[in-house]
Amino acid sequence: MRKKILNKTKKILAVLLITTMMSSVTVYGSTKATTPMKGWRYAKKTASYQVNSTSKKYKNIWSKATKKWIDSGFKWTKKGSSKTTVASYEDNSKSGLKIAGYCNTTYRASDGVIVKNKIRLNRAVFKKYDYTEAQIINVAEHELGHALGLAHNNQGSVSVMNPANRYYSIQKCDIKGMEKRYSTAINNAVVRGDEIITVTEYFLADIPVIKNVGVKYDTKKIFITGKAKGCKYVTGKYNGKEKTVKVESNKFKLVFDYTKAKDIKISGLNSKKERISRNKKVKVEKYVTEKPIYDKIKRTGEGIKYGVKTVANSTLSFKYKGKLIKKCVIDSSYTNITIKDSILKGKSGYFTVTQKENGKKISKKMKFPILKKGEASEISYYQSGTGY
Length: 388
Known about the structure:
- The protein is α+β, with helices and mostly antiparallel strands.
- About 20% of the residues lie in helices and about 35% in strands.
- Helix 2 (about 55-70) packs across helix 4 (about 135-150).
């Protein structure tokens, strides 16, 4: 019997681990009106708990989190000894920093009645990602929700049972879920030889992220804006220079003096200015217009016709010895441009051609040869290359 129980426990733990890790890539959805239930519960809508935390801070956190559930209709009673224990731990490992907390539950297979609960919070996550005390209390409420029998609401939901939540306390949907879980009475009779099941629900850390990054070039400066959720600072590295700015209302703005067409790396930092987000790369093409490349040139009695790889919604300019000869608005990725024979009179050598997109730096100057009548030339994009 013991071997059977252990095998059952291992299988359930494995499934829960896989499900939990997969939830990190779940598409965000709306909030379920009633937070779902798990297969376990206490015999009644009341339970005792034992605080194993020694610090005043975490004793206070557990006190406030249980009170919030008490105010919501579930009675938690603090005792010196209980089979439901609450505490914290510290795991600074790479995998450890993905988990904000967990609830390890053992219950009877026959009626789902809880035998014991082990609830833990990871202090390392809170320190690394700058959780406020109120946010840690929300995490504690979440784990207590699992302990009393609630499952996760949708990812991105407005619910304390959001699988990676730090911002929401107990909501109406969570209270509805709890009330539904305890809407029926159970016998609570011990069944001889009853199978005992143990499961662990892991709570994902709300890892800071940089998103909605926008880039604009104007008057020899690069302006980078975006959102930095969960970050205190944002740092940018561009052509050997580094700048750090404070995040205000989850928004940031970096400004660099343009020196060279280079990618820019952006990172989110915590209050100690340690990197806490994934690097975000701003590529050159986001702020510099791609240079125009020709692949065909042919001169006839009417003039020179250039086949040019262009950028849609840009302006193409032809200059000869610094003087503007032709300017045209481009609406496609390939354009045929004709310079009339009357304009070519007395000109030889090459035209200087540039391309400009709105909000970006003008492209590198390119030389387009001025052929003699009857001449033609072709060149592949692969040979000529593209760039900035």
